[in-house]
Design a protein that fits this description.
- It is a multi-pass membrane protein.
- InterPro entries: MFS, MFS_dom, MFS_trans_sf, Sugar_transporter_CS.
- The chain has a single domain, classed as MFS general substrate transporter like domains (Growth Hormone, Chain: A).
- The protein has 16 helices and no strands.
Length: about 425
């Protein structure tokens, strides 16, 4: 397959590239807003619907399970039917069933709505990353991918600041009703964003080929030993990323409340500081990955995560927690800015969205156990011990990067 890449002088994104970026950022921002909003609303939902602790936790778990299913299904569909069309489907499905949660009468129907909304949520990350990687110049690919990652942080930051303010006024049902707004975004995406030329050219080649010759996207993730090693490495990186992120963010408000007596509003502000650090880390990661390479950027951030999560577990004063949380956020989630470019450069157009969604959502599936592990360790020992466990898992990240991940900075996309 002939590689297609912008000329070396093409360092300015086109109007199409900018629209693709906006659509992808908005989609991922809605995901982040929804998941952290749910974390803040669980006590109110539990009180109103008389949920047990296990049932409340299952709402998060099954949202993530739905995301894994949606990531695989919509990744495959996107590689066959187009990035923009399938991205629209995912946003619409997510919006409708998030809105349906406002009508829930009990645990059973709310669990169904959350799971289906999760299916829509799962498709947005990988499709958006593939769309942006194919639309932007190679020299800016990591930077553009990091902007998509920033979308999640913008959504999480909005949830951390707005949910404590709006929840007492409109209740948890009103908060879920806000989830219908992404339906408008899906309409705009469908009307204003075009398919990348790289994908259009690929679709034309497939159309004239015999059906038997149609590439199998999932098989292409393990097409040979080198690709299989890279897929394993990316799966490990995504697993550690999601395990650490969900383990930290789901329990951070409870940790601050139980250990230091913070109110919901104050926990939200301290969480927002951590999220702001994450956003800064993502932005800096994109710049570093384009300048120094994917592997050096990942290794630096992974080492930083080991140190900062361990340090954060030792802090006890309000100011130290505020600054330490922001510094920890830089390293713990800054790496999300690199996955889009890394995965896009490892796989061809026929399997790019599939690779993005399948590998990242394998990580999301593993990450779903993060809150469970942190909660269990915190209950049996302490939050300090639980945070120490999170620090240790980033060592596995370093090993995977050193031995499984190749460097393909700025490679021409096939």
């Amino acid at each position: 397959m002939t590689a297609v890449s912008p000329p070396a002088s093409a360092t300015t994104p086109s109007g199409h590239a900018l629209r693709a970026l906006v659509a992808s950022v908005l989609g991922y921002a809605m995901d982040g807003f929804d998941l952290l909003m749910l974390g803040f609303m669980l006590p109110a939902i539990s009180a109103d619907l008389h949920l047990s602790g296990a049932q409340a936790g299952a709402l998060v778990t099954w949202t993530l399970i739905g995301a894994v299913v949606g990531g695989i299904v919509f990744g495959l569909l996107s590689d066959r039917y187009g990035r923009v069309r399938v991205l629209t489907w995912t946003i619409l499905l997510f919006a409708v069933f998030t809105g349906m949660c406002a009508l829930a009468r009990g645990y059973g129907d709310l669990l169904v709505y959350r799971t289906i909304a999760g299916i829509g949520l799962g498709g947005e990350f990988g499709i958006g990353m593939a769309l942006v990687a194919e639309a932007w110049p190679a020299q800016l690919r990591a930077r553009a991918s990091s902007y998509v990652g920033l979308g999640w942080q913008l959504g999480v930051l909005a949830a951390a600041l707005l949910t404590p303010l709006l929840l007492p006024l409109i209740g948890w049902r009103g908060m879920f009703a806000i989830g219908l707004l992404p339906a408008v975004v899906s309409f705009v995406v469908r009307r204003r964003v075009e398919e990348p030329e790289l994908f259009v050219a690929h679709a034309q080649r497939v159309a004239v080929a015999a059906k038997a010759e149609r590439p199998r996207a999932l098989r292409m993730l393990v097409a040979d030993a080198r690709t299989a090693r890279a897929s394993l490495g990316v799966a490990v990186l995504c697993s550690v990323q999601n395990f650490g992120y969900y383990g930290l963010m789901i329990w951070l408000p409870a940790y601050l409340s139980k250990s230091f007596g913070y109110s919901l509003t104050k926990s939200g502000l301290w969480t927002a500081a951590t999220v702001a650090g994450m956003a800064l880390g993502i932005w800096l990661f994109g710049i570093a990955a384009d300048r120094f390479g994917r592997r050096p950027a990942f290794l630096f951030y992974q080492a930083g995560a080991v140190v900062m999560v361990f340090v954060y577990a030792q802090l006890s004063t309000p100011f130290a927690l505020l600054i330490g949380g922001a510094a920890m956020g830089v390293f713990v989630n800054g790496m999300i800015g690199g996955y889009g470019a890394l995965i896009s450069e490892l796989y061809p157009t026929a399997a790019r969205a599939t690779a993005q969604n399948v590998l990242f959502n394998i990580g999301r599936a593993v990450g779903g156990f993060g809150p469970l592990a942190v909660g269990a360790l915190a209950a049996r020992y302490s939050f300090t011990v639980a945070l120490g466990m999170l620090a240790a898992i980033y060592v596995l990240d370093i090993v995977a990067t050193l031995f499984l991940i190749p460097e393909r900075r700025g490679a021409a996309l096939e």
